[in-house]
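Re: that chain you flagged

S.,

Sorry for the slow reply, it's been a week of failed gels. I finally had a moment to sit down with the sequence you sent. For the record, here it is as I used it:
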Amino acid sequence: MQAHETGNVVNNNVKYEEDYITNSRGMKLFTCSWNPTQHHHQQHPKALIFFCHGYAMECSVSMKDTGMRLATAGYAVHGIDYEGHGKSAGLLGFINNMDCIVHDCTDHFTNISEREGNSKKVRFLLGESMGGAIALLIHQKMPQFWDGAILVAPMCKIADEVKPSPAVAKALSRLARIIPTWKIVPTPNDVVDAAFRLPETRMEIRENPYCYKGRPRLKTAYELMRVSTELENNLHKIQLPFLVVHGECDIVTDPSVSQLLYEKASSTDKTFKLYPGMWHSLLYGETPENVNTVFTDIISWLDEKCAFGRSRLEREIKHSNEQNSKTPFSKQ
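Prediction finished late last night. Pasting the structure tokens below so you have them in one place:
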């Protein structure tokens, strides 16, 4: 069920729209999209891009520049605020079960992909930080569905220096069942200060009412730890083409883990870019020059995949041909 909220052209090149959808648990979730306008790109969008935002973040405000840049480059961009995030229903900053978030994203993204006019378009996932983990989990849920992923400083492992001991992890698991929403998980420093290089960006995040600024809630912290461990143990199962980008000076997610992802993934088409001197938030927390560098690399990678690599479509055709060759007649 969908209730349309608003749609407007942001400028002559991009049309921005917002919607609310109801998930399988009856919760109202906010969704938005940026599309190239017809007179800007006479052809249909080059591909569909599905954005998975980071922990405590949201789509419509902090992702606006990303949506605008990619739509201006000819891509249709779709975002969703997870349960407990942004303008969606749920207690702000609370993740009761990461599997539910993965399910919501998969439902919404596949529904858009299968709309009339979209079914033959190339499909990319774009995940930032915790959203990188979610993008990889979406891929694992439907390995043959996605054509590629852009992973921006992805959360694929809890850094060893902040990883709780087995005894503490067990206690956290027990407490998370008793007092799941309590904000008592200590963090080593202010994540906003650690993630965003520019003071003006930090101020925007702090003033954004849709971003969660409190300490991590117990069950949320447990889910982040659970999912990171699961991904860390299954990096070799990642098969899709991907570009992973990471700032060398990131102290929120570990660049060496992105290196590990690059080395261990089974993907035959994979690229890793490490940016000297850059921090965690590459898409909107860096200097304008640095943000431009990152987006130039992302758009070049996307354009190359759209020009040469419609691998999912080729696989579907190949699979269909193989099935047809095995069944020379059909039983009525």
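What I noticed first: The longest strand covers residues 14-22.

Talk soon,
D.
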